[in-house]
Amino acid sequence: MSASSFFQNRERNRRHRNRRSPFQQWLEVLAIGSWGGLFLKYWLTGKLYLLIHPNYFGLTVVGGIGLIVVALLRLLYLFRGQSASVVGGAQHLNLFPPLISSLLLLVTAIAGLMVEPRAFASPMAAQRGLGESSALTRTRPQAFRSQTVPEDRSLIDWVRTLNVYPEPDAYTGQKVKVQGFVTYPSVSSGLGDRYLGITRFVITCCAADVYPVSLPVKLTQNRAAYPLDRWFEVEGRMITETLGGKRQLVIEAKSLKSIPEPKNPYDY
Questions:
Q1: 3-state secondary structure the chain
Q2: What is the pLDDT of residues 68-110, one digit of tens each?
Q3: Maximum CA pair distance of the chain?
Q4: What is the pLDDT of residues 113-148, one digit of tens each?
Q5: Strand pairing partners for 234?
Q6: What are phi and psi of 91, to 5 degrees?
Q7: For residue 210, which phi and psi values (nearest 5 degrees)?
Q8: Using CA of residue 242, residue 230, residue 228, residue 206, what is the dihedral sign?
Q9: Around Cβ 219, how many Cβ atoms within 10 Å?
Q10: I need a labelling partner for 180 at 20 to 30 A (CA). Which of 50, 60, 129, 256 fits?
């Protein structure tokens, strides 16, 4: 056998091994198209806010459109009776066999299309570490700007302000008006039944890295009147109290107004 015949036979065998069955090729088209559709669905329904930082919306939309274009091109090859693997001729290293990989991708995409993502709530806040101290050490302002009117500060603005100058007495008596969902501080925090936490999540890249920021709110009645995870707008003034052996800034509530959960419940 000549050298040229040897290489021709080897190339023919390689192409034969890479040839995918029609079922597998249809499965790949469905998997790729489903993921493209899932990205666009999250964008069109506004659910993308719950999953990634808005800075990455453009990349996600372009990625979704790109996946749909790839799926349509592969579909065109199939209708023409061509194998995409033969046309491409490229080899890939896979953790799973290609059929299993395509099946897993398709099942995951279908699950994403059927199950609506929801915003994180108090259980995740407790798991990620809830408290003013965690906010002080973990919040890194991307662009800090002091507000001249205290009641115009959001919850995140207050936490960032404390991060820059963490002396509670400097803010005593200032008016406050913030929005967030209700969390109950742990027993070890030293806060009794007349205190709750007004909390929001901060997202820096995607849902995997969200973390909570919170400020304690002093009530005139038992906190049981304010259910966990319910969104409220809190108005009042800042006071300084020693709780759990630590001086900290507390919102003395004048009123708590129930509000609907915002379309984008996270901050940045």
A1: CCHHHHHHHHHHHHHHHHCCCHHHHHHHHHHHHHHHHHHHHHHHCCHHHHCECHHHHHHHHHHHHHHHHHHHHHHHHHHCCCCHHHHHCCCCCCCCCHHHHHHHHHHHHHHHHHCCCCCCCHHHHHHHCCCHHHHHHHCCCCCCCCCCCHHHCCHHHHHHHHHHCCCHHHHCCCEEEEEEEEECCCHHHCCCCCEEEEEEEECCCEHHHCEEEEEEEECCCCHHHCCCCCEEEEEEEEEEEEECCEEEEEEEEEEEEECCCCCCCEEC
A2: 999 999 999 888 876 555 444 455 566 777 788 889 999 999 9
A3: 94
A4: 999 898 898 888 888 877 554 444 444 445 555 556
A5: 178, 256
A6: -110, 145
A7: -65, 150
A8: negative
A9: 19
A10: 60
Tokens of 38: 């899932």
What 109-112 contacts at long range (C-beta under 8 Å, 24+ apart), as own/partner pairs, is 109/31, 109/34, 109/35, 109/37, 109/38, 110/34, 112/38
Model-level pTM? 0.75
Long-range contacts of 254-258 (CB under 8 A, 24+ apart): 256/217, 256/219, 256/226, 256/232, 257/232, 257/233, 258/230, 258/231, 258/232
